[in-house]
Design a protein that fits this description.
Elements lengths: L5 H8 L3 H9 L20 H11 L9 H10 L7 H10 L20 E3 L5 E10 L6 E9 L5 E7 L4 H15 L6 E4 L3 H4 L1 H10 L2 E4 L9 H12 L11 H17 L11 H5 L3 H18 L17 E3 L8 H6 L3
Parallel strand pairs: 2-5, 5-6
Antiparallel strand pairs: 1-7, 2-3, 3-4
Helix pairs in contact: 4-5, 6-8
């Protein structure tokens, strides 16, 4: 099936990619693999494997890794097997898991949310703005509508504080109307999980969502907006001299970003056009222009016209389009 790589499909069925290539060269497609005819000289015997398991699960070594076990045995003048052999035998016995009394790591689910319109899913974060004083920064609080990419709230302050974030959220509720049912996604910073911010979200009926601990790419929309902000051509050459100067510059940036910036993820609509519901008409007009151009000069068009379409749904951290195992196997035939 289109889209599957040979390496990925071969891995799913447990063969080497070179084996698949040999299969394709044979007209009958027979599997002529014979497998090893002799047992390797260095293969562990059943008794040796049992001894490895016995040692690894003993009261002395059950909370130690194979690296530690091998080192301790070597200090005693004893050799049973290498670290890799310990790991391989433990894996075969399905014992290569957390060992010891410490609490094992618990996987955190990836936060996944989908928006089909404006004011359903908002991402927010705080970034540094440099000042003329070395080591001192101003802090930009920025709220971004994920579906439209429009900046729906921002403020610049001299500190990071959940009380300031809660106040901004309250002013956004006044400006945008009810935020009931809105999903507000952020990372795990102090202002994001602060008591005042969480209380304000509960009061406004906003559902909190947070990135996984120590995962830097669970809040990609805010990070992308900050990159645009700091690499925009009119980013100032010198640090901000005052809080008022920083706020004035950010106000100019937000106006440009919302009203003039042609966003590639929106098929080059501006965030305001998308947010205010004007995007479909604009894209339809572009399709009409292209269709008329194709009819006027059909020889210049080897394919259909450009689709001019923005995604109706936008998801936060949607898993990459996966392939079912049976689809990957079918791609080999």
């Amino acid at each position: 099936m289109a889209g599957s790589t040979l390496e990925g499909a071969a891995k799913e069925i447990g063969v080497d990619p070179r084996t698949v290539q040999r299969w394709k060269k044979r007209p009958d497609g027979d599997d002529r693999r014979c497998g090893p005819r002799t047992k390797p000289d260095n293969a562990l015997t059943r008794a040796e494997k049992e001894k490895i398991l016995l040692v690894a699960n003993s009261a002395e070594f059950r909370d130690k890794s194979p690296h530690q076990i091998v080192a301790i045995l070597a200090d005693r003048g004893e050799y049973i097997a290498s670290e890799s052999s310990f790991y391989r035998v433990l894996r075969e016995a399905k014992q290569l898991a957390h060992r010891g009394r410490a609490r094992p790591r618990t996987p955190r689910p990836v936060p996944v949310h989908t928006a089909t319109g404006p004011q359903q899913l908002v991402s927010w974060d705080i970034t540094y703005l440099p000042t003329v004083i070395r080591g001192k920064y101003f802090f930009l609080y920025l709220f971004l509508d994920v579906w439209s990419r429009k900046i729906v709230g921002w403020e610049v302050h001299e500190s990071e504080d959940d009380t300031l974030a809660a106040g901004l959220l309250a002013r956004m509720a006044t400006m945008l109307g009810s935020l009931l049912g809105l999903v507000l996604h952020a990372d795990n910073g102090g202002p994001m999980r602060g008591a005042m911010m969480l209380a304000k979200m509960q009061q406004l009926g906003v559902m909190p969502s947070f990135s996984r601990p120590r995962v830097s790419n669970d809040n990609p929309f805010s990070e992308a907006a900050f990159r645009t902000l700091k690499y925009v051509p009119f980013w100032p050459d010198r640090p901000f001299a005052s809080l008022e100067a920083a706020r004035a510059w950010v106000e100019h940036f937000v106006a440009w970003y919302n009203e003039e910036h042609r966003h590639s993820a929106l098929d080059y609509l501006t965030p305001s056009e998308r947010h205010e519901g004007r995007g479909d008409a604009i894209l339809e007009n572009r399709r009409t222009v292209y269709e008329l151009a194709r009819r006027a000069r059909p020889a210049r068009w080897s394919r259909g016209i450009r689709r001019w379409r923005a995604d109706a749904e936008v998801s936060l951290n949607r898993p990459r389009a996966g392939r079912r195992k049976e689809d990957q196997v079918a791609a080999l035939t």
